[in-house]
Amino acid sequence: MAWFKKVRKPIEPQANKESRVPEGLWVKCPSCGEVIYNKDLAATLSVCPKCAHHFRIGAVERLKMIFDGDWVEYDRDLRSNDPLGFVDTKPYRKRLEATIASTGMKDAVICATGRIEGIETSVAAMEYTFIGGSMGVVVGEKITRAIERAIERKLPVVIVSSSGGARMMEGALSLMQMAKISGALARLSRARLPYISVLTDPTTGGVTASFAMLGDVNVAEPKALIGFAGPRVIEQTIRQKLPEGFQRSEFLLERGMLDMIVDRREMKAAIARVLRFGLPSPAAEPSALVES
Ligand SMILES: [Zn+2]
């Protein structure tokens, strides 16, 4: 028997802090523990009424929240053809089929035009439940087209990010989307049209490293995880505990990475305010401003 024994501390269990809106009648807020009736949560745009925790929401809910009413969706049927014939734990083709069946979407972004407080805008909203909101060829192409559509029709652009980054199943082709979208945004900027980037929980990887950080104004939701590599990956690499609030919106705002943090319940008004400020006067026709 050994005299001294090195007691190995078990690895701290990962607290289950991921926020989602589960199905069922009641939802427990992962932040304050408040039990909330599902319908009440819908009324507050999936923000906890007690502590203002922002639950993750899908692309359709997001568009409903931003637009005044109906919107026109584009490129709805674009879908990936698995260019690399990629297989991990299961073939990418199978994974795509299953995700398309479960989400009813063909890929991880919805691109639409509609009015925000009367201002016609081209909006792209990402869907996190579609393979982690990852950006493959289809997401890249759809967002690029949404920007080009805006240039053609002289509209401002809003992109709501919610993404784990580039889609590894499409390898380098995913990474090329970063350059493609950034190029389109440069053309938008040359056309003097504003682009607002809305960063929600989580916005990481190649999405942060390209269009999510290129907004004329970068707006984030409170306490959103925003970074390049996730905190868990960094912790495992440097073997150190990261400071409290690392890679959260508030931390990034303080260091100049973001322009503002806006509560979801005030997001639409804030976007409209920035759009009115950023649009050249002929594009913001008086008719568009007077409405409401
Ligand atoms: Zn709460």
Provide an overview of this structure.
It is a single chain. This protein is α/β, with parallel strands linked by helices and 292 residues long. The protein is built from ten helices and nine strands. It has helices spanning 38-43, 59-66, 92-103, 137-153, 171-190, 205-208, 231-238, 249-254, 267-278, 286-290, and strands at residues 26-28, 35-37, 72-74, 109-116, 119-126, 157-163, 195-203, 217-220, 260-261. Helix 4 (137-153) runs parallel beside helix 5 (171-190). The longest helix is centred in the middle third of the chain and has 20 residues, at 171-190. The radius of gyration is 20 Å and the shape is globular. The termini are far apart. Zinc ion is lined by residues 29, 31-32, 34, 48, 50-51, 53.
| Sheet/helix structural class | alpha/beta
* Biggest sheet overview: 7 strands, mixed
Helix content: 25-40%
| Distinct ligand kinds | zinc ion
Secondary structure tally: strands:
9
User: Strand order across the biggest sheet?
Assistant: 3-4-5-6-7-8-9
Give the radius of gyration.
20 Å
Please provide the ordered H/E string of secondary-structure elements: EEHHEHEEHEHEHEHHEHH
Low-confidence stretches: none
Distance between the terminal alpha carbons, to the nearest Å? 81 Å
- Overall pLDDT score: 91
Q: What proportion strand?
A: 15-25%
Shape: globular
Q: Helical element count?
A: 10
